[in-house]
Amino acid sequence: MLNKSKIIAFVPTKDSKVARSFYEGALGLRFVSDDQFALVLDANGTMVRIAKAENFTPAPFTILGWDVSNIEEVVSELKEKGVKFSTYDFLKQDSLGIWSAPGGAKVAWFQDPDGNLLSLTQY
Asked: In this predicted structure, what is the pLDDT of residue 1?
């Protein structure tokens, strides 16, 4: 039943103006609408609702990620736009902050202005 329905992604924010600047400006998502409940953006056909929440603690794991075909290029472009990528002592990451997983995937993590953990993955 739901395998034929589109996914809607939800991400919390304490400041929708700052979130809009990041998701639309830095990440390039297309603005759709803004109301009292959420900022709505389009990510290549997937609705991303940036939910307005006064209080929340960011999850300690990835809550939203993108499947990219050239992770090095995307990381470099995002770094040029001011996105800072996370590095972890327990992972061997390259100079761009990209980790090569044992199965062959490459992953890089970064945070939005609210501290939500986001990722890029190249399979």
From this structure: 85
